[in-house]
Amino acid sequence: MPENTAWWKESTVYQIYPSSFKDSNGDGIGDIPGIISELDYLQKLGVDLVWLSPILQSPQVDMGYDVSDYYAIHPPYGTMEDVDNLIKGLNARGMKYIMDLVVNHTSDQSRSSKENPYRDWYIWKPPRYDEHGNRQPPNNWIAAFEGSAWEYDEATDEYYLHLFAVEQPDLNWENPKVRAAVHDIMRYWLDKGVSGFRMDVINMISKDQSFPDAPITNPNSPWQHGAQFYCNGPRIHEFLQDLGKILKEYDAFSVGEMPNVYDPAEIVKCVGFDRGELAMAFQFEIMDLDQPAPTKFLPKKWEMSALKEVVSRWQTFMYENDGWNALYLENHDQGRSICRFASPKPEFRAYSAKMLATFLGLQSGTPFVYQGQELGLANVPDSWGIDKFRDLETLNYWKDEILQHHAQDTEYQEMTMKEIRLKSRDNGRLPMQWNKEKFAGFTTGTEPWIGVNEDYEEWNAAAQVGNPDSVFEYWAQILRLRKKYKNLFAYGSYKLIDEPNQDLFAYLRAYGDQTALILTNFTEKEVGWTVPSEVVPILKGGTLLVENRNHDRSISSDGTITVQPLEAFAVLLNKSSV
Ligand code: GLC
To answer: In what residue span(s) does the Glycosyl hydrolase family 13 catalytic domain sit (predicted)?
Structure first.
């Protein structure tokens, strides 16, 4: 509700993927000094908070989402002093540092013996034996990165749980020592000057302690998706309230990643304003529109009707129930949004990026911009084969699906490669494109850790910053609008209009005397729009806030306007001034 204002409701977050942002020492891996050298860039864009994917010490099985020391920096990224300088540099420019807190699991340390003092920090279970006397895992849960979620440990004859990679054992949150350790980590970093946390798969920390078998949804696999037994589990609110107390003490920001839960009524229990838990959550319904969980690589086309239903349900529910939305279309786990939701064709690409910026950036919630999204960066090129990919999820999928099951089937392999090029997590992990120099200005070294996209000579920051027609300046304009019309865009209501339209997504935001129309065309075609009666006065008497193509919007005698391919605009009507 509008009366519950908060600084984080008026903020925009920018996400940095440290290994791919900027390399300062030529080793081919991005680093913290590299980030510090681009703080002016972030300030020009106009973001308030900067979230870095994990920079802590890690064997990097999952790019730092496998932490081995919560009090040390991964050396290729820099030092503790670099982090202090980063925080200072951000704060000096009016920005804040948001840290990625990965505490559902750690890297695979300390699981050698039953006497190990840290053994109870993880989840261990004895084997089950089938009717033939063969040893089996304690249940049939599947891991996110393929195979059983349980790994057998010969030395102790028990299995440990890993909902992600084998090297990412889940922490046992039932153990009070684990919870206390997490609280200590939070305090340490908050004292250091971080302004809050993005909490990795935080809705998985409370598991159903009977660890039941999951119902069989995939008869072709022995392993089944058991999310209902570990997402938003029995003690989730108790655990989150403990975290919430610390966050409150520091007036800290928080966003929890909450996959597999599609009911806003469940999520609002974690993010409702007076719940004392988290500020907001990443829900996955939009991301899952074209990828049926649990695997993201199966082909599925998203539908406009579904997008409208999902967006409108979350927008309305959170507004009416005092919750808050985290708005995103991209992150380090997703393909680039122009390729998934709009058109990456050269003639449409910039329009697409701006259209999606309008669509997302003016909704109710806190917008998240993922590095390169502000430049309209695209997925990996069509020429990429599997050898170019680095992501463990992608490579495991290839191994399991192709090498084990379809090794001879070249047609199937080609289809799978196409899916991977559309949805692999690596799509968002290619080096940032700074300029048209070698390796896009990302590194001065001889080889970046992952290939640079082929389009960097044209699509880069140097070509866009200061260029009024660029995607970058368009995003900056959207973020300025959010500030200038703070009440309207942070606290205003949301209303979907012309629901049946399968090409256009149109919505209203309203606050007091102000009403804004946001209209976006997701298609590559020109669309004649019969202007709904409630929109007529806005188009006739309103002022233009932003447009991605200069185009006449006067209503013709038959009551329609023509909307150009991938067009987007926002118009504001102030009732008190008419
Ligand atoms: C989250 C992260 C992802 C990581 C996984 C396991 O989904 O965003 O990158 O692989 O958690 O930590």
So the answer is: 15-429
